[in-house]
Amino acid sequence: MMESNVGKRKRLRLSKNKKKSWRKVDISEVEEFLEDQRLQERTGGLVADKPDDQLFFVEKKVTDVPIAITRKTTRKAKAQIKLNGYESSLQIEQGKIKPPKRARQVLEKLASGKKSFTERQAEKQRKTAKKERQERLRARRKLPLATYDLWADSNNKDEKEDMHYLVVTKRRRVNVPSHLRDKPSVFNAVEVPHPGASYNPAYEDHQDLLMKAHHVEKKKQKQEKRLYNALDAQFPKAGQAPTQESILAEMSAGLLEEDEEKTNVEQEDQNQGEDDVLRLSNNPRVRREDKKDEKQRRKEKEKKEQEKLLKKEKEGRITTSTLFRIRTIKAEILRGEKQLLLKAERRRKLREEKALKTKKLGRIKYDNPDLEIKLSDELVGSLRELKPEGHLLEDRYKSLQKRNIVEPRVRAKKYRRYKRKQYEKKTHKIIQT
């Protein structure tokens, strides 16, 4: 059987001749012995030095048996029992160390059973802290229990639970943006048609609708004319197109005149260069009389200082004058505030006007559909004889584009990658006779 090493302490191998290893030596037994010895000296002397008659005695009188401490014993009775025990242990001889006065006061206080205000407050705080600590431990050890059925149809909300958990388990809806329910446009889904578009309209309403259609057509013609002036009108017609002779004459025009002008310019540049050489050679020399003396330099310095002083005085006068411009400054501030209010009002009107326009959602701009109108000679008195205008699906599609729900689009063209083969079936072959 192998001996167990549990409970054995590893022996430290230290050199005791060095001071740094003294604190690592276990001296707890020595300290306990010294403490016991000091306690014996305080409570009547060393037990080893006392004779037997001081340590033991024979009791010849019958004494009352002390009351045993039980749960029902009052606090005052417990304190009295402790006091009797302390007094019996403190019976010492004459000439030895007497018990301190503070110990006597403590014993009397224990015997009375009364507590001071500070002690009562401290005890109350200890009880409160202990209660809170126990509650924290219980809450930490307590496992969370499900108080609802996860797969039930009911969707009860509990604000105390984790919001992420509620969203993942779909017990709470995801936060939606505030503008989710806002309409994309202020236009109505189905607009009321103009009264002049009726099958039997009034004369004034029909003329008003005709005038609107006239303005639309006039605007289209103006746009077409602008495109013609910018593109087709810039190029000549076939009869006015330039010929080869006219192009050659236009390209060679002015060549001889340019050669003559070039020779004249070169001659003038040459003459100008000679004059510059003569002018450089005739520059006057620097004379001794032109050199400034000390007096002139001093005057220039005084003049500069005087200018600085005048400039500083002018700035001071401007600063002083601003104090008397308080009313003017206030008026300027009020004027600036009014301008800001006017700008804000202008921006508000622009926003309102922008809301009444269709947004550009794609590369194609939205165009209003043509007005559905009947001319005067096309009007009939009966609804049965009226010919329909427009198309219902097209009207709904244009309404979606106008209300910024669908972007304007153009029908895609189909391009055939290869040439279609043509052949004649035998069953459908035309027999020529």
TrEMBL record:
GO terms for cellular component: nucleolus; nucleoplasm. Pfam families: Nop53 (PF07767). Residues 110-137, 258-313 are annotated as: Disordered. Residues 116-137, 286-313 have a biased composition (Basic and acidic residues). The keyword Nucleus applies. One of its GO terms (molecular function) is 5S rRNA binding. May play a role in ribosome biogenesis. Belongs to the NOP53 family. This is Ribosome biogenesis protein NOP53. It comes from Potamilus streckersoni.
